[in-house]
Write a structure and sequence with these properties.
This is SiaC family regulatory phosphoprotein domain-containing protein. InterPro entries: SiaC. The protein is α/β, with parallel strands linked by helices. Helix content is 40%, strand content 26%. The protein is built from 4 helices and 6 strands.
Length: 149
């Protein structure tokens, strides 16, 4: 499968879907047509999980989102929840929040309550300025231009 990388905009998150099982969404998700934005992401993840990878990990750091995005994020998490049930220990989900942003932490806990069987790890980050550094370490680009997929 081809890696997908989408740059963040004012209303859409940065997305990285690696064929090695590392999946990342970071930023804001409050677009008008969340279903259209998330459709190729959900298709990619569904197809990827059907290949029965040894490991799949999703890291989410969503700052702000609207109700349309919640539905799509739940669909994404449900795919991983189903996979985790079939393949115990093969799936990791991490919800990152910026230190001091209790609303962001509460959002992650809300998703955990909606999918109680899916173990979502909560991870605190020092500050939002780490995002650029995190993105370089995620995609390994460290200064190279990002490719759009």
């Amino acid at each position: 499968m081809q890696t997908i990388e989408l740059k963040a905009t004012q209303s859409t998150p940065y997305v990285l879907l690696n064929n090695d099982g590392r999946l990342y969404l970071r930023g804001r998700s409050y677009m008008e047509d969340a279903e259209q934005f998330y459709h190729p992401i959900l298709d990619w993840v569904s197809t990827f999980l059907q290949s029965v990878p040894a490991k799949a990990s999703l890291t989410l750091e969503i700052e702000h989102f609207n109700s349309r995005s919640v539905r799509q994020l739940l669909r994404l998490l449900s795919l991983l929840d189903d996979y985790a049930h079939l393949h115990p220990g093969a799936c990791t989900v991490v919800w990152e929040w910026v230190k001091g942003n209790e609303d962001q932490l509460t959002d992650g806990q809300m998703f955990q309550e909606m999918l109680p069987e899916l173990r979502i790890q909560m991870r605190e980050r020092e500050n939002p300025s780490e995002e650029g550094q995190s993105m370089n370490s995620i995609n390994g680009s460290a200064g190279r231009p990002e490719e759009e997929g």
